[in-house]
Amino acid sequence: MNEGVNPDVVTFNSLINALCKEKKTEEAITMLELMIQRDLKPDIVTYNTLIHGLCNSGQWEEATSMLSKMIDEDIVPDVVTFNIVLGAVSKQGTMTRAHQVLKLMSQKGVKPNEITNRTMINMYCLHGDMDKAKEVVDSMAIQGFALDLAAYKMLINGYAKRSRKDEALRLAEEMLQKGLTLDEATKNMLRGFTRL
């Protein structure tokens, strides 16, 4: 940064975002440190950008460390923050960490949204825990959320992989009743069931 130029939080956030998109997370963290040295207080956008960048670079430990630092700085994570971390740990395949994130989310009073629920459905389906996936669906209904096309496909695929034909067919029928369209891959999978 040139002398005489006084960047603000928005400028630093833009620089951090650009560095994270290029997967230059160490440089992005250096920008955070420079920001603090200049007596600028990082905001939720700063931390969400860094956490997202770290997750996209496969730096899970650093991302959770950044979440802790954010909380230590009295910046309350929002649903976006938690969805970023939850998405990362679910891709990593760590159910225990995902549950820790959900617990922290609840402790901070942050309510899940459709993305949170879809991430959990996908994670449970990938791990073959269809009963837990169904619990998320039931909780979504209580919260007033409806399943979207992506969630239906995850569930149908999850039930199909577990040879739970009736549940998969019931969901496909429900999906069609709601005016959603089955893609070719889902149709082919269901055709395989009807031949049994």
Outline the structure in words.
With 196 residues, the protein is an all-alpha fold. The chain is built from eleven helices and no strands. It has helices at 9-21, 25-37, 44-56, 60-72, 79-92, 95-107, 114-126, 130-143, 149-161, 165-177, 184-194. Helix 3 runs antiparallel to helix 4 and helix 7 (114-126) packs antiparallel against helix 8 (130-143). The model has no long low-confidence stretch (mean pLDDT 90).
Summary of the model, kept short:
The protein has about 200 residues and is mainly alpha-helical. About 75% of the residues lie in helices and about 0% in strands.
- Euclidean distance between termini CA atoms: 67 Å
Largest sheet at a glance?
none
Question: What is the total tally of β strands?
Answer: 0
Note the overall shape: elongated
Total count of helical runs of at least 4 residues: 11
Low confidence ranges: none
Structural class: mainly alpha
What value does the average pLDDT take? 90
Strand content: under 5%
Determine Rg (CA atoms, Å): 21 Å
Main traits of this protein?
196 residues, mainly alpha, 0% strand
List the helices and strands and how they pair.
Blueprint: H1 9-21, H2 25-37, H3 44-56, H4 60-72, H5 79-92, H6 95-107, H7 114-126, H8 130-143, H9 149-161, H10 165-177, H11 184-194
Helix pairs in contact: 1-2, 1-3, 2-3, 3-4, 3-5, 4-5, 5-6, 5-7, 7-8, 7-9, 9-10, 9-11
